[in-house]
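Notes from hallway chat w/ T.B., transcribed later so I don't forget. T.B. wanted the structure written out for a chain they're using in a teaching module, and asked if we could keep both sequence and structure tokens in one place. Agreed to drop them here.
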Amino acid sequence: MLIEEIQQEVAQSSATLRDVRRELAKAIVGQDAIIDHLLVAILADGHVLIEGVPGLAKTLIVSSLARTFKASFARIQFTPDLLPADITGTLIYNQKTGEFSPKRGPIFANFILADEINRAPSKVQSALLEAMQERQVSIGDNSEKLPDPFFVMATQNPIEQEGTYPLPEAQVDRFMLKLIIRYPSMEEERKIMALMVNPAEPQIQPVLSPEGLYQMRQVMQKVFMEEKLWDYILHLVMATRHPERYSKLAGLMPLINYGASPRASIYLARCAKAHAYLQGRAYVIPDDIKAVAANILRHRIILSYEAEAEEIKSEEIIRKILDEIEVP
């Protein structure tokens, strides 16, 4: 298929996302970049971890996003006394039949908000891990498939340490993106005040169905990416593991204990295509990869004690890598 034909198909298919953005603008102010990256994750069929202090509309963003889809939504508030069965469901004894029947938990929804995920112990997080990775849950002796699409957005508060459990590295790696929500500007906060003081709740209309999303993903797969860009992605990931192989990055070696996993390479390629599709473009350019790189790599680089002692963040390392690896 010619690139011109793909371009026409992408332009027609991605037009619906403008309607999604328009509906979200009724309730969300000043988080355009976060919304774009959430849409990238949904298109690329991945999950998102969002970190930010309280009051930055993390819950509102995902609930509003779910309302733009003709899809089910469930919010799970993670607490220290939460049990795996509270998420996945359990077996209920039926006195009439004398048999156990499964009662599905809130995980059986298209959009899941795992609020304050780091407040639950590891056995609960492992139940969510199976759902995220395998797209199924085990209830008793049976495994049940989760609905499609299935999208988990987990939130965590970075400033509270009491009563929290650090997420296992294996689980953090399952999140396609880790997004950081910042404080709004003064002008944006003025708009937020005006919106929230008004008692009328914004009426967000559903504009996209699961079937429509599936068709979008099919078109997105046709987005073209040159071999040089595949190599560029591999060099970015390899630089997090073996910075000494790149002369200008040798100084990063003592700062990194472990580099990004192979999931980073896969997600960079998928998200770069999704980002290009979101822009209505039928081909990937280096800026697409750069636009998603920090959100894919920041939680996959494990820093050394030396880096922590010097208060060096993973963002600084990623910025250095992006600056030094040659763009094709």
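Follow-up for T.B.: The CA atoms of residues 47 and 175 lie 5 Å apart. Might be a good example for the class.
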